[in-house]
Amino acid sequence: MNKLHFKVGLFAAASLLLAGAFVVYLLHARGFFEDTFHLQLAAASADGVAPGVPVVFSGIEIGRVTTLGLNEAGGIIIHATFLERNAKWLKENSTFTLDKPLVGGAKIRVDSPDLDAPALPDNATMLLLTSDISKEIPALVERVKAVLDNVEHLTRKDGEINATLANLQTVT
User: By 3-state DSSP, what share of the chain in percent is helix, strand and coil, each rounded to 5?
Assistant: First the structure.
């Protein structure tokens, strides 16, 4: 009976040790133990932005929005956190654009045209631009209406297409 208790205890201790090692490995793989880089984005509107919105560079997620807040003047400040290894893509000439597609979630896109430019310092504040496709829909609808009006004008009973077809029928 003593050997059985020892074996069960050894199995339980090994299982706990293995589970603990697995949790530490997962935390390490997710960058929990790495240093972080913080960035503040000043925005005119926080529509579509929430904690957890990804910050992407060339289509790859390099950071996430952590919190939203207001500054002393009532302006919107968006706090984003990056792993230190991903901060090398953030340069002083980088542009930050909030993309809000019609379908899917919003994301903040980082464009760095010159990767040799000086790096952004930690806790820097940058301007966030907005690219909202839904704001372009009214202009697009007006263009479609104009095209449909032209088509209707051409195809009505006394329109140019019917007159041309009548002339063609007379000639043939």
Answer: 40, 30, 30
